[in-house]
Amino acid sequence: MPRAANSKQVEDFIKLFDGDSASAIAAIKNATKQDQSTVAPSLSVPTRVVNDEIVISVDSVTRMYKVGKLKSKALNAVSMTVRRGEFVALTGASGSGKSTLLQLIGGLDEPTQGLIAVDGVNINQLSDTARSEFRNKTIGFVFQFFYLQPFLKIAKNIEVPGMFAHTSKNDRIRRVHELLQIVGLDEQALYLPKQLSGGQIQRVAIARALLNNPKILLADEPTGNLDSANSEIIINLFKRIRDQFGTTVVIVTHNPEIAMQADREIHLQDGVIV
Amino acid sequence: MIGIADSLILAAAKLRSKRLLLLSTIVVSGLLFAVLFAVIIVSNGITKSVNGYTYVALNGKYFVKATPVIPQDVYGPSRLNPSPDLVNALTVLQTKYIADQKALAAQLKIPFDPATIPQILVPDPFSNKSSPEASKLMINFDSPVYQQYVQQLQQNYAKTAKNKLSDLKNTASRYGAVSYNQNIQADTSLLTMTYLKDGKEDLSWLSQTGPANSDASIYGYITSSVRNSSYTFVDNALVQRFILPSNAKRKDSTAIPVVITTKEAIGLFGTQLHIGPQPSNAMQQVTWLKTLQDKINGITYTTCYRNQADSTALTQAAQTLTDVEANKNNKSYSMPSLIYSLPTTACGDLTVRSDTRTQAEKDQVTQQDAIHKALGTYQAPIHQLMQFQIVGVMPVAPQTDTTTTLPTFLSGLLGAQYGVGAIIPAQMYATLPASTQYKDILQNDSTSIHNTDVLQKAGISETIVAFTSLDQARTFMSTEGCSSVSDNCDKLYILEPYGINYLLLDTLESVIATILRYAFAGVVGIAIIIVWFMMSRVIADGRRETAVFRAIGAKRRDIVSVYLVYSLGVAIRILLFSGIIGVAVAFTVQYLFGSIATNYAKAAYGVLSQVSDFGFVDFDSYLLWYLAASIMIIGIIASLPPLIRNVRRNPIDDMREE
Question: Which of left, alpha, beta for B494 (phi over 0: left; psi -120 to 50: alpha)?
Fold first, then answer.
């Protein structure tokens, strides 16, 4: 029997949609069907998808910041590629430019020079609105400080990217249910963030990042605020996500042990890949 | 763009943050708007209640008193400093009058002495000796020539006047006037009708010191209409609300019906009926008025009417008796040949105490009377007992009371204002048998033969015009007349509300509108600053959150949508808070003052039934919707500037600031 059908979860999900039990039930039924289909593969059967397709291409990218009258080069003619399904760790000391590179890849920032193509799209040329859609559909962001909405329940927090994507309510509920199972927090769906531990909160943030099925997951120091046990759980989760969904994962870290668990490590120093 | 439902979810989550800031914003702004809500609700309630009372009291009609504007010179020249032209004109008239009288005497074959005709111009004892001759004279107002001259002036004016009753009807009908009534002074001569207290005629007025027991005011005027014999015929419709239902005392009565003020009722009959003066307590006022109405309904009183000739005979008789008494020990005093004793019964005849006149003296008197009869100037002495019956009482409205206490305010707003004098309901009077109408004494018609007022006979007199709507009356007054004589009136009429000063409502609404205008501007300004400050803080503190939303795919307009819904949520809370407080205040006013106001209103009106309670609460005002809309708009306007600043920021900057 699929997990979604267990009665406790059904009750919780009905509570989630106060006064709208019909849509909750419909969502769970859908979720059950989807579980049995190929859309959301079973966690117990890894289906790692790694190929040679370049999904991220950074070509001679320079990023300069102006601080007062001074100009500072955060990245200097950086070039790199990442293949689909690859788990890459960006490492380097503080100020080396790793977070800047991650934000440029994610379309949060624009390079001063150079080109960035993600999933075949030159994101430099996107309008602000198109870039927002790109971030919403293609990228999933995970932050060091989680940034959940403190007064939204866990399930609602995970739903937020779906709100911006105009995903139907039923689809959102179904997807939230799946993701809570993936991150192992289906029992905490109705909790507020303050009721969870740091590790749990980061798992919720990861679930939120995955809501719109992004091709790329970008994580900026995702374990920076966690102890080693929770860091291990998070890294394993990233790996599982990569393995199950073929999601490309790029994380920024300065922890060598975590970097070692990635498929590849790209080290930056003073804005240059070394 | 993000759906409304999702915006609501995110905005609702935001509303749960910054609670202290949000609460203080709602409370401060809400209290300001609550004041406006309360003022609108209460003023609307007062206006509606007063309108309701007015409508009921006036039986659905709005009366306008139209007083023709007449140039002062139509009433005659001033007594002093006549111009040379006027002196010449009056001299010519005097000469002609004497000639006419002489010719009439010759025609009647009676002797005529020009010296018996009063001079129209007499020396002014206070004139300056160096003044021109004409200025040393003054006009004798008692001269029959002067009366003729003034009548001529008025007849000339009446020929071309455009403010006669017919003109008024033509004009007022265009505004929807439905009826016209002229209030007629029943008798304008003071002290010709004496109130018989305890059945006795008070002749103290014959002494030079004046009435011994008059209820003269501190200004020296006798305030009692009954003692003053000041009566006015008024159409029943105008005083219907004061007329009490008929009872056993009034059945088959032939006394003249009269409505007097509550104050006068207490003054005349308070002791007899064991009713004290009007209490100040509102609840007691209603009970007091009810008791007064019950006890005074049908009470009768008698007056003694004496005409000018009879009064003069009484005065002369009293003077003679005084002289005789003063000289009773004076042996050189020559006793008058005819001495009368004053009447010993109420409204009785003079009785002859001693008559030592010679036959020649008697013949001379007979001849004088014959001459006056022949000239049409003879007036037989008449005295007549007349019985009045009280059929209603009306409260006294303060005319110029500017105090601002609730009772005086309501009294001024609702009280009756029918001018001076007791009122004789015209239609009730008309049903009396002819024998008790005393038509030779009372004039109830401007065309009465007793009416010597040229202007009144020509239809140029105060007229009460009735309209069926307040707007009609208001438009008529503002278009066709002046509100008072003191404002250099260039219109044909002085037009003012009659019965109830319903225009005070306009004044009230105007004052409230002015207050609201300034208060609204002030409150809106303050509220915008407060909400602006709050939104700036909330949005500034939410930059990281906005950046995260942008990172996970929110467009700028999604952020705008969430914050707009948030600001609307804030505005709705301010609206609800201010609305609840405003309504609570209004109901508190109703609770505290409702019954007091109702009692004051009933007492001020003089009507105890067929009126609903005075309400201070009424929500039927477009201003409430304006205010509610304004609060919502303020919420949006105040949030736009910080919001625009916020969405223009680069999210990465805000994330980096962490």
Answer: beta
What average pLDDT is seen over chain B? 83
Name the DSSP letter for residue B137: E
Closest C-alpha among B262, B247, B226, B258 to residue B606:
B262
Query: Which residue type sits at A180?
Result: L
The 10s digit of each residue's pLDDT in B368-391 is 888 778 777 788 888 989 999 999
Q: Nearest-CA distance from B22 to chain A in Å?
A: 15
Environment class of residue B5 by beta-carbon count within 10 Å: exposed (0-12), middle (13-18) or buried (19+)?
exposed
B352 contacts chain A (CB < 8 A): no
CA distance B621 to B516: 13
> What's the complex ipTM?
0.82
B4 touches chain A (CB under 8 A): no
B566-603 pLDDT, tens digit each? 999 999 999 999 999 999 999 999 999 888 888 877 77
Q: Would you call A94 an interface residue with chain B, using a CB distance cutoff of 8 Å?
A: no
Strands (E) across B165-306 are located at 179-181, 184-185, 193-195, 231-234, 256-261, 300-306
- Residue from the list A103, A132, A150 with its beta carbon closest to the beta carbon of B553: A132
> Any CB–CB contact under 8 A between A146 and chain B?
no
SS3 A160: helix
Chain A CB contacts of B550 below 8 Å: 108, 132, 135
Interface probe with B: pick from A132, A135, A138, A154, most Cβ of B within 10 Å: A132
Q: Is the pLDDT of residue B490 over 90?
A: no
Whether this prediction's pTM lies above 0.80 is answered by no
Estimate to the nearest angstrom the gap between the alpha carbon of B332 and the chain centroid: 60
